Amino acid sequence: MTATVPPTPPTPPVSPGDAISGPAASGRVELAHGHVPDDPRFANDDLLPVPVERRTWTTYNFAALWIGMAHNIPSWLLASGLVALGMDWKQAVFTIALANVIVLAPMLLTGHAGPKYGIPFPVLARASFGLRGANLPALIRAAVACAWFGIQTWIGGVGIFTLLGKIFGGWAGAAEIGGQPWTLWLCFVLFWALELAIIHRGMDTLRRFENWAAPFVLVGAVVLLVWVAAKAGGFGPLLDQPSALGWGADFWPVFFPSLMGMIAFWSTLSLNIPDFTRFGAGQRAQIRGQSLGLPTTMTFFALLSVFVTSGSQAVYGVALWDPVQLVARTDNVFGLVFGLVTVLIATVSVNIAANVVSPAYDLANLAPRFISFRTGALITGVLGVVIMPWKLTETPELYIFTWLGLVGGLLGTVAGILIADYWIIRRTVLDLADLYRPGGRYWYRSGWNWRAVVAFAAGGVLAVGGSHSAPGKGPFPADGLIPFLKPLADYGWAVGLASSLLLYVALTRRSTTRPVTPV
């Protein structure tokens, strides 16, 4: 049968036979048999909608995905970065918890299109940016993911190097290549190859990996807590340390940019979460799974990091925020091996899910005829190494204020446009076939929707135009790139999302969108 959902005014009606609705209770839509788009410029097997019978991910699958992604070394180090900026542990955990409750909202809003239409993020972006214009947000998201992939892979390689060096000894004294021991480069390359081997096997392999990786890593973190508590005979003085900022005038200038940085940590997934929810059995599965998996897990993990670090201070006389360095202090071979496996699984779990899946789809969207999901994943792996982004984590200021702040501002701008188009303009109703069809309602002008581009440019300038750095601690001028926008820089993600959303709605409602003949 044809689609029973009314089209979004004032766009033309859905072409008969192009799409069919699933069971009334599910609200899921798929392409009708015999109406699969085959234009190689805009479609390949990886970008086409997932058939309803293959949308099988349950609440547990989504919760496990988030548990697996949240339990990683950079997540563990978030609290330490905030404490290094002067917060006490309660302020740090509160900041992280609030940020993840806030970022959950756009995550659920953009994730809605996945179970309903079975489409990935770059295809969803075609509805607002146009069939060609969707490459703009897709490539921005891909570039961010490549940088994160490099960061996570390097961290994982260093973790393996440290723990294997403790087991076998002598690794740190190996001959150096490029300023690092060749054994470290070996760990890095082997870890990189393992990640690409897993993702090469496809999304079903990823789902199965996350299902067992999530509880394993959670158990590993709890074991680390119990071990430290037993050695410490309780927890150290860290929990009693007062805030260097208090709750007054010194706290808020650090809190708000830190909050935006914590939001930015997962703002990448708030865009491309349809890459995963497209496999969902329904809206209830993705809503419950994400709500159970993200804010609770991140808050719990932040608490674990604080408690374990406190215990390390009591045992060793120094606060060891890096779990790899803490595990390396033990002389128990079993403990070292268990820690090594836990670090490996935790890092692989987040990296292939958060930082390879999205750019693989994004790059496939750029040239579907030549780039498949697997080819995009390989390109991501290469770029993630070439750009050497691990330097971004050298200081808390550079990591939280510069890297996360800048990324959050730009990605918040894209999220605002996606939410405005899908929820406010179209009321969640899309013409599924036209998302792949030149000349359809999402073709706009030569494949570009100028309204989305203008909203992105304006929102991006407002969000990151005032970016500034303390003298000697970052790449931006102290007065900001655009001085009069400096007051907005501390709220980059929120400013980008709100401004682009409002501007896109205003521009769209002033004109009627009609299909244009392709050129």
Automatic annotation (TrEMBL):
One of its GO terms (cellular component) is plasma membrane. Keywords: Membrane, Transmembrane, Transmembrane helix. InterPro entries: NCS1, Pur-cyt_permease, Uracil/uridine/allantoin_perm. GO terms for molecular function: nucleobase transmembrane transporter activity. This is Cytosine/purines/uracil/thiamine/ allantoin permease family protein. Residues 1-15 have a biased composition (Pro residues). CDD domains: SLC-NCS1sbd_YbbW-like (cd11485). It is a multi-pass membrane protein. It comes from the Bacteria. The keyword Membrane applies. Belongs to the purine-cytosine permease (2.A.39) family.
